[in-house]
Amino acid sequence: MTQPNPQDIHRPTYHFLPAANWMNDPNGVIQWKGRYHLFFQYNPDGAYHANMHWGHAVSDDLAHWEELPIAIAPTPNSPDQGGIFTGCMVDDGGTPTAIYTGVNDDYTRQVQCLAFGNEDLTRWTKHSGNPVLSEIPAHCFQSRDFRDPFVWRADDLWYMTVSGNINGIGGVALLYRSDDLRDWQYLHPLFVGEGARHGYNFECVNFFPLGERWVMLISSMFDGGGATVLALVGRYENQRFFPESETVYDAGYGYAPLTHVDDQGRQLLWAWLREGRSREAQRSAGWSGVQAIPRALSLDGKHRLVSDPVSEIEALRRDGFHAEAGDLAEDEDLPIRGLALDIEAEFDASLAETCGIELARSPDGQEKVAITYDAVTEALRVTRHYASEGEIDSEAQGLAHRLDPDENLRLRILLDGSVIEVIANGRARVTSRFYPSGGASQGVRVINPAAVVSLDVWEMASIG
Ligand code: DQQ
C-alpha cells in the first residue's frame, strides 16, 4: 500500500480527504450534538475502488476536520459482506441510525440495511434483522441496481427513495414508506427517467423541499460510461415528483452529492470530487478522491438552484489581494500566486467577448487552467493546458450559463492542489481537476481586465 507523499503538489490542502487510500461518495452526513459528522465510501486497502467501508471524519466548524477510525465495516457471511455502499443517516428519536446498501462479493445483490450508533457516532451496531429491504419491485425487470437509500420524515412517517433502473427505459427513484425504519412498504416510482435524457441508471437520488419547490438530485449513469449529476426542480404531488426544470448540477467531476439540513436550517450539499488521472496514477499517489467544500443550497426567484460554499470556509482565508475596475493591466500576473486560493470576481460581461481568470499559470504561460465566460455563446468553460505525463483528462469542461439582463458575471473559484471548483452566479458549476507537472505553475492572471468590476484573491491556510 502506497503512502501519500507530503510534497505531492496535487494533494489538496484545505479540502477534506483521508490520510491515505481511496474515498468516494459522502455518506450519512449529520450534525450530531453540534458537530458535523462526515462518513464516506472508503477502501482501507489502497487508492482504488474495492472493499467499501464507511470512513468517518468530524468537524466543529466545517473548515477543519479530524479523521476518526472507520465507522462501519463489512461483516463476513452477512448481507453486507461485499461492502458497505452509500446511504444516509437519521436521528430516530435519539438513536443515530445509518441506512445503507449492503452488497455481496460481486455486487449482484444489493439490499438495504440499518446500523445504530453510540453517543458520539464512533461505534456502530448492525441491526439484527438486516436486510430491512431486499426485493426489487417486479417492474424493475432484470435490474440488479438497487441502492443508495435516502430517507426523510414527513407526516410522522419515514419515507425513502432507493435508486435503480427499469431495464430498457431509464433510471428510477423508487418510493417507500415506513413507521419504524425496519418494515418498508413499497409505494410506487417517485420518478422514472428517460434513458437518453436522464441516464440508464440512477445512483444516490436525493429528494428534499427547498423554498417553494422540491429538488431531486440524481447521479445519472449514461451509455458510454459518462456519469453526471442532474438537478431537477419541481412539484411533489400525490407522492410523485413532477419536474418543472432540469439542469446539469456540475459539468465536471463532482458526483454522488448528499444533502442534509443542519442546525441552522441550511440544506447543505456534500459531494465527491473524482479524479481525472489514470487508475495507476491514483494507486501510486496513495490517495484518490476528495470532498468538495460543502455548499448551502437555495432557490432563487426563478426557482433556479443556487449553491454557495459555506461561509465558514472564509475562516481559512489569509493574505489577500483586492482590485477594482481600472486597477489591472493586460498581460500581467497578479502579485498573489499559489495553488491554494479562494477567489471572488465580478465582471461586466458586456464589456468583452470573453473574460475570466487564468490560474496555476507557468511563467511562460504554457501551463495554465483558464476559467472563461464567453458572452457571445453564453458559456462557462474550464480549459486545462498542462504538461503532466501519462493518461490524464485534459478536455475542456463547461456548460451554458445565461446571465439575466443587467446581471454581472460573479465567479467564485476554490483552487486547491489538483482541485478547482468554479461557481458562476451561484447557479452554474464546473468542478475540474488538473495535474500540473511541477510546482512552478502558480501564477494568477485576469483575462480582459477591462471587464473587471471587482476582484478578491486570498491565500488559503492548510487544514492538515
Ligand atoms: N458509489 C457507491 C454506490 C453508489 C456509487 C459505491 C456512486 O453505492 O451508487 O461505492 O458513486
Brief write-up:
By secondary structure, this protein is mainly beta. It has helices at residues 195-198, 279-285, and strands at residues 21-32, 35-43, 53-59, 66-72, 83-92, 95-103, 110-117, 124-126, 146-154, 157-166, 170-178, 185-192, 201-210, 213-221, 227-237, 240-250, 254-261, 267-273, 287-288, 290-291, 295-299, 305-309, 317-324, 340-347, 354-361, 368-374, 379-385, 397-400, 409-416, 419-424, 428-433, 443-447, 452-460.
Characterise the protein shown here.
The structure is a single chain. The chain is an all-beta fold and 464 residues long. 2% of the residues lie in helices and 53% in strands. The chain has two helices and 33 strands. It has helices at 195-198, 279-285, and strands at residues 21-32, 35-43, 53-59, 66-72, 83-92, 95-103, 110-117, 124-126, 146-154, 157-166, 170-178, 185-192, 201-210, 213-221, 227-237, 240-250, 254-261, 267-273, 287-288, 290-291, 295-299, 305-309, 317-324, 340-347, 354-361, 368-374, 379-385, 397-400, 409-416, 419-424, 428-433, 443-447, 452-460. A six-stranded antiparallel sheet has the order 23-33-24-29-30-31, with no helix packed on it. Strand 13 (201-210) and strand 14 (213-221) form a beta hairpin. The longest helix is centred in the middle third of the chain and has 7 residues, at 279-285. It is globular and about 65 Å long. The chain binds 2,5-dideoxy-2,5-imino-D-mannitol. 2,5-dideoxy-2,5-imino-D-mannitol is lined by residues 24-25, 41, 52, 85-86, 101, 147-148, 203-204, 219, 255-256.
